Task: structure prediction
Amino acid sequence: MKNRHREAVTALLFVSPWLIGFSVFLLYPLLASLYYSFCDYSVLHPPVWVGSENYRDLFHDEVFWRTLQNTGLFAALALPMGMFVAISLALMLNAKIKGMTIYRTLFYVPSLVPSASLAMLGLWVFNGQHGVLNAVLEPLLRLLNVVWVPLAHLLNIGWVPLSSHLPAFLQFSLGRMAPPGWMSDPAWSKPALLVLGIWGAGNSMVIYLAGLQDVPQALYEAAELDGAGWWAKTRHVTLPMLSPVILFNLIMGIIGTLQVFTLPYIMFPGGTPARSTYFYTMYLYDNAFVYLKMGYACAMGWIMFLIILGLTFTALKASEKRVHYSGG
Amino acid sequence: MAVALKHNHRDPNRQKNPVLLHAALIGLSFLFTFPLIWMLLTSVKPLEETMSTNIVWIPSRILLHNYYDAFVYHSDKLGYIPFLIYGRNTLLVCALVVAGTVCSNALVAYAFARLRWPGRELAFSITLATMMIPFPVLMVPIYALFKNFGWIGTFRPLWVPAWFGSAFNIFLLRQFFRTIPFELSEAARLDGCSEWEIFRQVILPLAKPALAVVALFSFMGTWNDFLGPMIYLVDQKTFTLGLGLQAYQSQHGGTPWNLLMAASAMVMLPIILLFFFAQKQFIQGIAVTGLKG
Result:
């Protein structure tokens, strides 16, 4: 009994840094943020209670809705696309052929590029006048146009008008295709960020690869005995066995993507063009540190926190029956 | 990036005809590496060749000199950019963060992994749940707190919190500490070792690989951090590399793209080098991230 007691006291000493860290850098700011969200607060003066005013103002704030919409749309595109690319790459890189180590390294290294460097590289690659991407796309599209322009006129009768319901950059262009203005066209600024995001898919690719290596070989052998081909094995063995990793990446992806900041902040100052890249955290930052509307910023912070909680629990609930946990 | 893979010869993933796969992988890896190659190519070009109307693929001369010029860049438009000072600042903050992260999280994770105390499981669940709290919701009160301390404009807001633990690192180290046989601790206890001695002399030496992972990740996180320095640093002389890179950009055109790419490459280089020297730690760390154990 005495031993137990002593061990608990020792444990308390060992966890004490975290007790302080948790209280000072997490719990206090979280609660203070909730309090400030009901206050008029500029950090220069003490907070003044204003009730739900900040939340009511947010509800009528067009820019707030715009940034929420931008962020939601971006996450809805970036998460599935990133996941698809990362899983596909991982499946390819799980094969055993010569030089695999080199391939893995080549796909992984781009995800290491610091976001400030990445933003600068993005500005350069997507540059309107001297960007290398459009320099490559230009001749390619000129070639494609030979087929596309007549084809588009035929398609126009039927399903091209339907595409007007899609986000602008997914719509079918009717005339000649030309390289887009990544930095200047509101329809193409988000795709520019998506491309950079996919370029960094290497990080989650390695997580999926680690998950793939844990799949027991016996399962594949059993599936092969049942005559399963490559796709059947992927669909019925690999993906179910990978589902816990997919869920984990999905949740971390939701939390991360909703906070997207550095890349658009550097590449598209102020969310240009036409606020198409003005994301939630950028507006929150501007409210806090540019307009000094700190109470307003805290209200935005809490709404974001609640959205993240909601989405995480939805993902966990929805996946309960679909995610396969083997053992413990 | 060798992940243990060798044991099974009848692996179903082994390709019978790998030519197609090779072709696909070569094509894709070219797409993935091209932006980096382009960054390096641009960084050694003469300025005119970055601005010509017809794109110049291969620089006519290779100007390694650009890297030196980026260090001592001075123009009427942009002023002097103290790149070396940014580098020193970044390294200083990184060193303090890495030291703090390793020390504090090792202690806390030890208590979660190897000591018995009431409420441990609940406290651990709460710790894990804090990973869902987004930084933007905490940003304002933490800023106000540091302002009260008089810390705005100093490096302290960037490194002091690292000395008080963080959920992800606690989780990572706890997973590793639990794999060390408990008999080792018992034996040391019978020999009369105190808990501190067991921690220092038995556990820490065995946990070096995991500590390396934590050190590596916290170094990278700090090196890449942009929002933190932007909120807390005021004076240009205290800026970190990430903030400093922006100084090469000119709002009115005339950005020296070759020098900006050289500077961006220099910001990237330490991370890439670190990766090549510590590949094993990277892969292990990422594998743990993927919810193993």
